[in-house]
TrEMBL record:
Coiled coil: none annotated. It holds the Pfam family V-set. GO terms for biological process: adaptive immune response; regulation of immune response. The lineage of its organism: Eukaryota, Metazoa, Chordata, Craniata, Vertebrata. This is T-cell surface glycoprotein CD8 beta chain. GO terms for cellular component: cell surface; membrane. The chain crosses the membrane at residues 155-176.
């Protein structure tokens, strides 16, 4: 079994990274140890996978089918933070990454860092406001609007509203997947 313990702390709690980029996960150890294990929990595959073990002398032992070029551990002292560098990111790298140490025949896990790899990073929200228009506003009374046949006709706005609803409903599965 695994135990979560305050012997380990990890930063950050969540990473959002772009496909084909690289990232780093830190693990700060608060007790003496003989090396650090790195694991990944994949929600999609429902499995806990051993990635790499690194001892204080810098020697690394990798799990089955784990690329030594993709996962590199830095940290060569039992008192300094360790970091897991992951390169060439793809959707298959999604999951929660844990560092752990072994003491008294128990494996102690850190809190975990969730990594989500996406093709396109979301744009940050805009904080600037558009300048106010200096053009005079043209007021249209109900009578003038009624005289313009077709501009607000149900034949125009019903398909428009229907199309917008279909687009919004098609985004729900995508938003749900990104949330997971």
């Amino acid at each position: 079994g695994f135990c979560t313990n305050l012997l380990l702390s990890k930063t950050p709690g969540h990473i959002l990274a772009q496909t084909n980029s690289k990232t780093e996960i830190l693990c700060e150890l608060k007790k003496e140890h003989s090396g650090v294990y790195w694991y990944r929990w994949s929600q999609e595959r429902q499995n806990f996978e051993f990635l790499v073990f690194s001892n204080p002398f810098g020697k690394a032992t990798y799990g089955a089918n784990i690329s030594q070029d993709k996962f590199i551990v830095h940290g060569v002292s039992s008192r300094t933070p360790y970091s897991l560098h992951i390169s060439h990111l793809h959707a298959s790298d999604n999951g929660t990454y844990y560092c752990s140490i072994s003491q008294s025949s128990q494996l102690f896990l850190g809190r975990g860092t969730r990594l989500d790899v996406v093709d396109v990073l979301p744009l940050p929200p805009k904080t600037t406001q558009a300048p106010l228009s200096k053009k005079p506003l043209r007021c249209v009374t109900k009578r003038k609007a009624a005289d313009k046949k077709g501009a607000c006709s149900p034949l125009v706005w019903v398909p428009l509203v229907t199309s917008i609803l279909v687009i919004l409903l098609s985004l729900v599965p995508t938003a749900y997947r990104l949330h997971r």
